[in-house]
Amino acid sequence: MPKLTWQNLDDIALSLYEKFPDTDPTNIRYTDLHKWITELEDFDDDPLKSNEAKLERIQMAWLEEYQDNQ
User: What is the tens place of the pLDDT at every residue in 28-40?
Assistant: First the structure.
């Protein structure tokens, strides 16, 4: 898999779903979400380049994956 950056929001969401398939993303605080993203094996970007809008988009894309597979 190519390296993940803040430009790959859907890919980050899919990676999070694959790593935490039983976790409802709506119960995750943005601080934890940010930590989990930056700790993904394929994540390779400046952690400071994130913002609330990007985290929200990732969370919603992850939620879609989660709901589609329940």
Answer: 999 999 999 999 9
- All residue ranges of the chain with pLDDT < 70 are 1
Dist CA 50 CA 34 (whole Å): 8
Q: How far apart are CA 6 and CA 8, in angstroms?
A: 5
- CATH superfamily name and code, 9-68: IscX-like (1.10.10.600)
pTM check: above 0.85:
yes
Per-domain residue ranges for the chain? 9-68
- Its sign, for the CA torsion 44, 8, 57, 61, is negative
